[in-house]
C-alpha cells in the first residue's frame, strides 16, 4: 500500500505540472494532427482533391497517432531532462521504492495525458467535421489507449538507450517515422500497389493501432491480431524500459 501511495503521488505531481503548462502541452499534443485535419478535411475537399468520406479513415488514424507519438515524447524527453539537467528525478529515486516504480509512474502519466489528448482531439474533430466520436465505433477508444501504452514504453526505451545529446534529433526522427509509416493517414489495404512498403508498415505498432481504430469499417487487419500485437509490444517495451531505467540510475 505504501508503494501504491508513492506511485500515485508521483503520477499526480507530474499531471499537476502538465496543468501548469497547458499551452506547451496543447502544442505538443494537437498542433500536427490538427493541421493534418484542417488540410485533409477542409482544404483538399474544397479544391476537389479528396472526398469527405476519407475522414472515416483519417480521423481514427490521427487519433491513435496523437496518442502514440505524444506518449513517446511525453516519456523520453522529460526523463532525460530530469535525469541529466534539472535533476528532479533524484528526489524520487531517493524514496524507498524501486527505480522501476519511478519509471512506471512516468509512463503511466504519459498514458493518462495521451489518452486525454486523444479524446480531446476527437472532440475537436467533432466540431470541425461534424461527426461524433461514437460514429467511429468503440475500437477507436481502445486503440488510442493501447497506442498510448505502447508509446510510453517506446519512450522509456529511447530514454534508456539514446545519448542525451542526441535525444532531440532521435525523438523527432522516431515520431516522424512512426507517424508517417503507421497507416494513420491511409489504410493498410490501400497499399496493395506498394507491396514492399505495405509489409514494411507491419513493423510499426502504429499500423496495428490505426487498423484497430477503424475496426468494423475499413480495416483489413483483424482486430484480434491488432490487439494482440499491441499488447505484446506494450509489455515488452515496458519491461525493457523499466529494466534499462534501473540500470541507468544505478550506474
Short description:
76% of the residues lie in helices and 0% in strands. The chain is mainly α and 251 residues long.
Proportion of residues in β-strands: under 5%
List the total number of helices.
Answer: 10
Order of helices and strands: HHHHHHHHHH
Mean pLDDT: 86
Q: What's the Cα radius of gyration?
A: 18 Å
Distance between the termini: 28 Å
Class derived from helix and strand content:
mainly alpha
Ranges where pLDDT stays below 50 over 5 or more residues in a row are: none
How many beta strands in the DSSP annotation? 0
Globally, the shape reads globular
Helix content: over 70%
Described by strand count, sense and barrel closure, the largest sheet is: none
Question: Can you give a write-up of this model?
Answer:
The protein is mainly alpha-helical and 251 residues long. 76% of the residues lie in helices and 0% in strands. It has ten helices and no strands. Helix 1 (2-20) packs across helix 5 and helix 3 (55-84) crosses helix 9 (205-213). The longest helix has 31 residues, at 99-129. The radius of gyration is 18 Å and the shape is globular.
Secondary structure elements and pairings:
Blueprint: H1 2-20, H2 22-46, H3 55-84, H4 89-93, H5 99-129, H6 139-161, H7 167-180, H8 195-200, H9 205-213, H10 223-250
Helix pairs in contact: 1-5, 2-3, 2-5, 3-5, 3-6, 3-7, 3-9, 5-6, 5-10, 6-9, 6-10, 9-10
Provide key terms for this protein.
mainly alpha, 10 helices, 76% helix, globular, single chain, 251 residues
Amino acid at each position: 500500500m505504501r508503494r501504491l501511495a508513492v506511485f500515485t503521488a508521483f503520477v499526480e505531481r507530474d499531471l499537476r505540472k502538465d496543468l501548469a503548462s497547458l499551452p506547451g502541452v496543447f502544442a505538443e499534443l494537437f498542433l500536427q494532427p490538427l493541421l493534418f485535419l484542417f488540410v485533409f478535411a477542409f482544404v483538399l475537399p474544397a479544391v476537389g482533391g479528396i472526398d469527405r468520406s476519407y475522414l472515416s479513415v483519417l480521423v481514427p488514424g490521427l487519433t491513435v497517432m496523437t496518442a502514440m507519438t505524444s506518449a513517446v515524447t511525453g516519456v523520453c524527453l522529460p526523463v532525460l531532462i530530469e535525469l541529466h539537467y534539472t535533476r528532479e528525478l533524484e528526489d524520487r529515486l531517493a524514496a524507498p521504492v524501486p527505480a522501476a516504480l519511478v519509471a512506471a509512474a512516468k509512463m503511466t502519466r504519459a498514458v493518462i495525458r495521451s489518452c486525454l489528448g486523444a479524446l480531446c482531439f476527437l472532440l475537436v474533430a467533432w466540431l470541425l467535421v461534424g461527426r461524433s466520436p461514437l460514429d467511429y465505433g468503440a475500437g477507436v477508444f481502445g486503440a488510442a489507449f493501447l497506442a498510448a501504452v505502447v508509446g510510453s514504453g517506446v519512450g522509456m526505451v529511447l530514454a534508456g538507450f539514446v545519448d542525451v545529446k542526441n535525444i532531440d534529433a532521435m525523438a523527432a526522427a522516431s515520431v516522424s517515422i512512426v507517424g508517417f509509416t503507421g497507416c494513420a493517414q491511409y489504410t493498410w489495404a490501400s497499399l496493395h500497389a506498394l507491396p514492399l512498403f505495405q509489409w514494411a508498415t507491419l513493423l510499426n505498432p502504429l499500423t496495428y493501432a490505426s487498423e484497430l481504430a477503424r475496426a468494423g469499417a475499413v480495416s483489413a487487419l483483424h482486430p484480434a491480431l491488432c490487439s494482440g500485437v499491441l499488447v505484446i509490444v506494450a509489455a515488452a517495451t515496458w519491461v525493457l524500459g523499466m529494466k534499462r531505467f534501473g540500470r541507468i540510475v544505478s550506474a
